[in-house]
Every structure is written in structure tokens, then in C-alpha cells.
Specification:
By secondary structure, the protein is mainly alpha-helical. It has one domain. It is elongated and about 90 Å long.
């Protein structure tokens, strides 16, 4: 590759990067306008909006309860009894 070709590629890259910066600025302006009007985006929020922030806590959700071994055993025995009753009805 000659010197002029590499220079052309460098200039093209600089131009594209400048266009990308302008587009990113316009996107940020539009998002700001949407936020002012109370319009929310659907789906996940953009990475740039959540950088450095903790994920939002789910409000109103109770933590899961853990079953003890005795409770698990009791459920197991009841299910075995129910299935035995079903098998007996079929026969």
C-alpha cells in the first residue's frame, strides 16, 4: 500500500469517526427530549444510561422462602400417596 493510499484511508476513518460523534450527540439530544416528555423506551435501557449505576431493585417482591428437609419429605410422601391412589383407580 502506498503512502497516499494509507493517508486516504486515515482521512476516511477520521471523517467517519466525526460523523459517528455527531450522530451520537443527536441521539443523546433525542433521548433527553423523550425523557423530558415522560416517554419511556421499551425493552432494556441503553448501556450508556446505566453505566456506574446499580440495577434497580424490584419493589414489592417478597424473598423466596426455603423449605426445610422435613417439609420436603412431607410433600414427597403426599405425592407418593396421591400417585398410588391414581394407580389403584386405574387397575
Amino acid at each position: 500500500m502506498s503512502l497516499s493510499e494509507s493517508r486516504i484511508l486515515e482521512l476516511a476513518l477520521e471523517h467517519l469517526e466525526q460523523q459517528k460523534r455527531q450522530i451520537d450527540e443527536e441521539i443523546d439530544e433525542l433521548r433527553t427530549m423523550l425523557n423530558k416528555h415522560g416517554i419511556r423506551r421499551r425493552g432494556r435501557s441503553a448501556k450508556s444510561e446505566n453505566q456506574g449505576e446499580a440495577p434497580p431493585a424490584k419493589l414489592g417482591r417478597k424473598p423466596r422462602r426455603q423449605m426445610t428437609d422435613e417439609q420436603k419429605q412431607a410433600i414427597s410422601e403426599r405425592m407418593k400417596q396421591r400417585w398410588a391412589e391414581r394407580r389403584a383407580v386405574r387397575e
